[in-house]
Amino acid sequence: MSFAPEGYPLIGGAATLTLFLGGLGAWLGGLWLVLLGGLGILALGFTIWFFRDPERHAPDAARTGFALVAPADGKVVELVENETSDFIDGPVRRCSIFLSPLNVHVNRVPATGTIAWTRYVPGDYLVAWHPKASEKNERSEVGMHHTSGIPIVFKQIAGAVARRIEFTLHEGQEVEAGARYGIVKFGSRMDVLVPASVEWAIDVGTRVRSGETIIGHVPTSSASTSPDGAASTRSRDVAA
Fold first, then answer.
1. Is residue 44 located within the same domain as residue 124?
2. Which of 26, 27, 143, 158 is 20 to 30 A removed from 127 (C-alpha atoms)?
3. At what angle do helices 8-28 and 31-50 cross, to 10 degrees?
4. Annotated catalytic residue: which of 85, 140, 188, 210?
């Protein structure tokens, strides 16, 4: 099993703590060895489990076609219509995925295309399933153009437990659906915002796997949205 690079320091720290607790338990003797040693092993086991990074392979329909894949493991908790975005013209659809602490937390790009902008937004730490978490919590936001030209926004959103967001994308980067791009530590949420023309392939309650589960389909007519294939988007200034 491979592990997310972002987790190596914490895995190392948990291993050190386990050795310390085991040594302390051995010095105290008796039941202390079982209690402290067991506590250390549980902490190390959870940390290793949390930062697992299994191999994922996006379907061809997403890598080279018009499908979108889930950017995170978890459960679809909201499918919202008629949202707005300063990157997407017209009505916007939002899919929200909740990640429990037991889910794989490595995040993946939902579509093939070009990154238009990225930004980090400080904020609150409401529980990840709170309706206002998408706009009030600490988060990263990424805007991209699918190969068809349509704009897509996806967000890593910190929750009440998750307090650290990491991502590696940058403006102008060419990406493929399913590519690994970041992690939110210890429970979180991810949102995907798309134009109303995109049809969801999931329902509220659907459990998805990052980089593998198809969550939506871009209409093939979107490839001719404009003479150069680029869909209409509003201009914006974004802090990287």
1. no
2. 143
3. 170
4. 188
